[in-house]
Amino acid sequence: MLKKGLMILAIVLMAMVGLAVTLTVIGPWAGPEQEAFMPVLKAFEEETGIEVEYKVYRAEDLANLLPAQFAARRAPGDVIFMWASFIREYGKKGHIMDVSSVIDPDWYLAGALDPVQVGNRLYGAAYTAKVKPGFWYRKSLFKKYGLKPPKTWDEFLALLRTLRAVGFKTPIASGDGVGWPLSDVTEHFLITFGSPGLQKDLIEKKISWQSNTVRYAMEKLVSLLKEGYFSEPTEWTTILQQWWRGDYALYFMGSWITGMVDDPSDLGVFSLPGAKGMVFGADYAFIPKYTKHPEEAKKLLAFLVSEKGQSLQVAQGGHIATNKYVKLSAYPPVDAEVAKLMEGVELLPDLDDSIGGAFQMAFWDQLKLLWVRPERLDTVLKVLDEKLK
Questions:
Q1: Does residue 348 lie within any of the structural domains?
Q2: What was the pLDDT predicted at 101?
Q3: What pLDDT does 13 receive?
Q4: Which of 52, 78, 221, 233 might form a disulfide with 291, Cβ 3.0–4.6 angstroms?
C-alpha cells in the first residue's frame, strides 16, 4: 500500500510539474535598466507562483522579427514591450489580443492609453513612462562656476558661452543610438519654439515639415549646431559616462538617466525657457494572440500596470508612473522632482514613435545628417515631408 501511495504521489507531482507555467517577457532593457525591472517580475512570481523568463530584444529588431512570427501564427513571448504604433497596426490586423476586459482605463493618467486604443478595443497597456524634460547637469559643476539654469533664450545662449569660456569647447553632449536621442532633442525644440499643438499636428500629418512654423523651430536648433555647441553624435550610454565625468556640461536625456548615474542627488535639469509641453513616453506592452498561456499573460500584464507593480518600478529610479494612484512617496527624491516638473505643462506623445514606420527611420537618419551638416536643413525637411506621403 505504501509503495502504491508513493507511486500515485509521484505521478501527481510529475503532472503538476508538467502543468507549471513559465511566461516569457520581452523588453528593451539591458544592464542597469534590466536590473531595475527584475524586482517587479520577482514580486509577480511570489504573488502568483507563475514563473517569468525575461529576454532582451530591441524594438528595432522586433519590428523585423514579429511580422514573420505572426504570419506563422507564432510569437517569441507572452508579454512583449513594443512601440505603440506597431501595437495599433498589428492589433487592427488581428495578431494582438484585446485586453479591454483586463485593463481599467480609470487607473491611468488622461490620454495614456490613447496610442494603443482603436475604437472600443484596447490592444496594449501602458507601463511606466519616461519623461523627456530637458538638459541635465551636475549641480556640483554649476556650483563650482556659479551657474544657474536659464530663464530666457538669451540666458541659455549666455550659459553656453560661459561654459565654453571655462573650458567646455563643446558644452552639450549628443547621445546617439539608432538616432532616437537626437530626435528627443529635436522634439523639444519643436515644442518650445512651435507649440505643443505643433507636436500633435506633425504626428497627425496636418502640417508640412517645410512650413514656416517648423522651420522657425528647427532654425533655433540649427543655430546651435552651427556654433558647435553640440558634440558629434556618440553612442548614448558611452557619452553619458563622458558627460558624468566632466567632458561635457549638459546632456539632453529622458528621466531614466536618474537610474544610470553614481549620485542621482547631484543631478539637476532644466527645460528650454518657454517650453509649455513635455514628451511623456510610456512603455507599452501587449499580449500576442498566439501565446500558449493567455490567462496567465493577462495576470502578468494587469500586475505590471497596477499601482503595486508601478510603485515597485518607480522605486528603482528612472521611471515615472502612468498609474495615477502611485504616490509621490514611492519615488526616490530626484525622480519625485522630475514628476513635479510635469505640473503645469502639456504631456505629449513621442513624435517618431507615434508615426513609426518608414518615417521614423528616415527621421533618425536625417537628424544624424543634420547634426554634422546643419546647412542641409532644407534638404532634411524636404525628405521628411516625402516620407510622410
A1: no
A2: 94
A3: 40
A4: 78
Query: How do residues 176-198 score in pLDDT, each as one tens digit?
Result: 988 789 999 999 999 999 999 99
Q: What is the pLDDT of residue 111?
A: 77
E-only strand ranges, 101-179: 117-118, 121-122, 125-132, 134-138, 172-173, 175-176
- Residues 126 and 139 both lie in one domain: no
Task: State how far the Cα of 23 lies from the Cα of 50, in Å rounded to an integer.
Answer: 7
**Whether the Cβ atoms of residue 251 and residue 136 lie closer than 8 Å to each other:** yes
Please tell me the predicted confidence (pLDDT) of residue 138. 97
Question: Is residue 207 a contact partner of residue 267, using CB atoms and an 8 Å limit?
Answer: no
In contact, 222 and 189? CB cutoff 8 Å: no
Q: Which residues of the chain have pLDDT under 70?
A: 1-19
Structural domain span for residue 204: 134-253+356-387
Q: Are residues 367 and 248 part of one domain?
A: yes
In angstroms, the CA 2 to CA 45 distance is: 35
Q: How many Å apart are CA 102 and CA 221, to the nearest integer?
A: 43
pTM of the full structure: 0.72
List Cβ<8 Å contacts ≥24 apart for 2-5: none
pLDDT of residue 4: 52
How many other C-beta atoms can be found within 10 angstroms of the C-beta atom of residue 101? 9
List beta partners, residue 270.
135
DSSP string, 196-243: HHHHHHHHTT-S-TTSHHHHHHHHHHHHHHHTT-BPPPEEHHHHHHHH
Q: What is the pLDDT of residue 14?
A: 38
Q: Residue 136 in contact with residue 253, Cβ under 8 Å?
A: yes
Please give the DSSP secondary-structure letter assigned to residue 346. Answer: E
Q: Report in angstroms the alpha-carbon separations of 35 from 41, 51, 58, 311.
A: 11, 17, 16, 16
How many domains does one find in the chain? 2
